[in-house]
Amino acid sequence: MTKTNHLNQWKRKEELAERLLPLAGSLYRDFGVSVYVSGKSLLQLSPAEIIEAHRQARELWQEELDIADSLVVMETIRDLRPASARVDIARLVGHYRGEDNAGSLEDYTKQVLADIAGKNGDNGGDPQDVILYGFGRIGRLMARVLIDKTGGGDRCRLRAVVVRPGVAGDLKKRASLLQYDSVHGEFPGTVEVIEEEDALIVNGNYIQFIRASSPEEIDYTKYDIKDAIVVDNTGVFRDREGLSRHLE
After folding, report:
1. Residue 169 phi/psi, 5° resolution?
2. Do the beta carbons of residue 85 and residue 33 sit within 8 Å?
3. Model confidence over 35-89: pLDDT tens digits?
4. Backbone phi and psi for residue 101, each to the nearest 5 degrees, phi listed first
5. Listed residue (44, 104, 33) closest to 68, CA to CA
6. CB-neighbour burial class of residue 244 (10 A; exposed 0-12, middle 13-18, buried 19+)
7. What is the pTM assigned to this prediction?
8. Distances in Å between the alpha carbon of 235 and those of 132, 134, 164, 183, 220?
9. Is 40 helix (H, G, I), strand (E, B) or coil?
């Protein structure tokens, strides 16, 4: 292959990768479908990173995933108008190749996703409310994960964060620590501070901050939060008795 051919091949891959990006966005927004390639969400990748993710499929299936195949799968998913889900295209296409299917990749995708077809983003009910008790480094990383997964087939939604009563203006500092991490880098999104409501809006998620010195003094129903999962990441309560205080 000549030097020119290498460049032309790259440009072709880049063009296809760029076509995947708006599809990934519309699948996520319209149907709650999160699309992955080799375990990486397409929503967070640049065209070059998408190409690399397709190359990494060789680690699973001994050959590179063709970006054109990903385009076929994603267009088919869009046309199915499915329920919310998480789909790893590398695995789907790998199984298609491994099973020596006589039919097309489009037909195989329809067959695999038949149970969720035509459900227009329905995920079977309202999302599960989640509360983070504590907002140290572990809490902030947990918040990143929950925010990243909101709406894409994951039925958990971060509603509130409990912190100790602080000083005036500490919400801005907490927002900055969420947005910039010295190890994990910058948060891929927007963080808006609503000081008068003691809340953050992160990638469209309204997150209430609740000030309390102990679990017993909090009434979550005041914030329209019911039957929530409380994730204690303070390290203060380490046994059944201590953690049970969140249930009182």
Report:
1. 90, 0
2. yes
3. 999 888 898 789 999 999 999 988 877 889 999 999 999 999 999 999 888 899 9
4. -70, 135
5. 104
6. exposed
7. 0.70
8. 12, 9, 14, 21, 21
9. strand
What is the number of residues in the chain? 248
Nearest Cα neighbor of 215 from 239, 244, 235 is 244
CA dist 105 and 70 (Å) reads 10
**Where do the structural domains in the chain lie, given as residue ranges?**
3-116, 128-247
User: Measuring CA to CA, how many Å separate 170 from each of 189, 198, 204, 207?
Assistant: 21, 10, 21, 15
Class of the CATH-defined domain 128-247: alpha beta
Number of H helices and E strands in the chain, helices first, is: 9, 11
First to last CA, the chain: 70
Percent helix, strand, coil in the chain, to 5, is 50, 20, 30
